[in-house]
Amino acid sequence: MPSDTSTPHTLPAGGYRDLLRNREFAGLYAGFILTVEAGTLSGFALGTLVDRQTQSPFLTAVSMYGATFATVLGALTLMSVADGNRPRRTLVSLHCLSLVGVSAQAVPGLPLTARFGLLLLLGFFQSLSTGTRMGLLAEVVPSSAYVLARSLMNTTSGGAAILGYALGAVLLRRLSPQEVFAAAAVLTGAGLVAVAATVRERSIRLTRRPGLRQTWTANAALFSHSGRRALLLNLWVPNGLVVGCEALFISYAPEHAGAFLAAGSAGMLLGDLAVGRVLTADQRRRWAFALRLLLAVPYLLFAFHPPVPAGAAAVFVAGAGFAATLPLQEQLLALTPDPVRGQVQGVESAGRMTWQGIGAALAGGAAQYLTPGTAITAMAALSVAVTVLSRPFVVRARAVLVVRADVPAPPRPARRRGAS
Prior knowledge:
The protein has 420 residues and is mainly α. It is built from 17 helices and no strands. It is globular. Mean pLDDT is 76; it is low at 1-13, 205-211 and 399-420.
């Protein structure tokens, strides 16, 4: 397919319907949602399988989010490929790899060590897939529609997760985990077809050959900027600690874990919808801190071991706090040079997912010695502490113009102004 280096055509930024009229965006969007649905099903199936075989809160938590440990390795080594030539070919190849990995999980009798190995392998390449997809997204839609596009993807991924957890809970009462893995493989294949049939090839951003040196150079520039460091900290750590709370749902209430997970996804959907569609950019920045607190505070209720309806309601409310990610991503994008958009977004996503794995491991390890409810409360309290202590640094982070260059240097600091 011929390469297309033209700038994206103008899209009306009036609503989601306008975005979906763009065939390439619709393909990226469909592939993303089907991938989320498949990941939800396979993660729930694996967590249930490990819990049944080991009865270990630690191994169960890690099995649900273990792939995220390897994403940081991809971000540190190969992420510059996300901004290299032929991003469509890269994304399709990664979809094929994911299809093979999910299909392998459906093999009956596969040892747990092999299952965890597959998790790490797919996690390594998942960060590259995310960076490539989001780099293409920045090419496919105009900058004025970028936040709207991310909001739509985040919102409907929440809906896909709700459906996935609800469907997984139903299927696992009737089918084996291996059969649920097979269903996830079908969804992964459908996502591959959606991307391959709609997205055009492009040659974007980097003029130097992508690789380890290019990745490290851009990453060094990314972390040299204090504003970006503060934004990344708040995008990664509080989020990851709360995901650690979610990783204990199967151990906390095996029969009701699907309800808790679906409630959290429903809250996330509502929060992303409200923040992405109702609030202005200034309002999003002002509400980011409150939303980050909302993400963790409701989980403190688990100190009192609430009944399932009350616990699910708390999880639903907390889920809305994940919408704080949107304004922080928006500020990070404003601080990012165009030539490395895909790499920086991939690093942000990889770090966030890696911290989800760290949070799951910490929560699972705590639950080995404490009750799951106590471990959930401890993780939530730690998330609140990080959010409060890091707030001054996030307040000082402000959007500045960046120098367009093949290899970005840290932008010169702007004149000191009021907080954004």
